[in-house]
Amino acid sequence: DAGVIQSPRHEVTEMGQEVTLRCKPISGHDYLFWYRQTMMRGLELLIYFNNNVPIDDSGMPEDRFSAKMPNASFSTLKIQPSEPRDSAVYFCASSLPSWAPGGEKLFFGSGTQLSVL
Amino acid sequence: SQKIEQNSEALNIQEGKTATLTCNYTNYSPAYLQWYRQDPGRGPVFLLLIRENEKEKRKERLKVTFDTTLKQSLFHITASQPADSATYLCALVPGGSYIPTFGRGTSLIVHP
Known about the structure:
The complex is a heterodimer of chains A (117) and B (112). Chain A is mainly β and 117 residues long. Helix content of chain A is 0%, strand content 53%. The mean pLDDT of chain A is 95. The mean pLDDT of chain B is 94. By secondary structure, chain B is mostly beta strands. Chain B is globular and about 45 Å long. The A-B interface holds A 4, 33, 35, 41-43, 45, 48, 56, 91, 93, 98, 103-111 and B 32, 34, 36, 41-46, 49, 89, 93, 98-105.
C-alpha cells in the first residue's frame, strides 16, 4: 500500500483565495483525521470521519473551514476565504477500525505546507 | 484545563548514549499513550503504545514507561545513533475515546 496520500505537497496562495487540500486514506481504514501543525500550537485535530461521516468537527477554527468525505477513498479540506493565519502544515491521517488489531495507530500522510500571503 | 507537556528545548546527546524524553500531562485520564517520530517535512510515524495498566513497554532499542500516579511517560532510546535524530511526539487517548491528542514534541539531536 502506498500509505496516506496528500496533495498538493505545497500550496502558496493569496489572502482571500479558496484552497482545497486532498487526501486519499489507506484502503480498508475507516477513520480519517485532519490535523493542522504549527510551531505555536503543535498538532491540532480539526475534524475526523468514521465511515465517511463527520463525527467531530469541534476543532475546525471557523466557518471558513469545511471538510468532506464523499467516499471511502477521498477527502477534502477547504478553506474559503483563506487568511495568512491559516498558514501551517495540514496532515491527513487514517486508521483501522478501533476494534481491529493495531486500530489505535494513526498513519499520517506527508502533509500539505500551506502559505497564505 | 487539559495539558500535555514535552520539553520544548532540543535534547542533544552523543552517539551511543541513552536518550530520555519526557511527556507530562494534567487533567487527563488516558486509557493509553502513544509515541510517534516525526522527521522534517514528513508526517508522524507511530512507534509504541502503552496502556494505563502497563508500566513498561519495549521494542528493540526503544523503551517506554508510564506512571499514571506521576502523570508521566518516559521514552528511552538506548545506544542512540545519528539516524535517531528527529522530533518525538507523545499522544494521549482518554478512556472512552480513541482519538489522540498530541504534545508539541521534543527534538532529539544525536551527535556522531
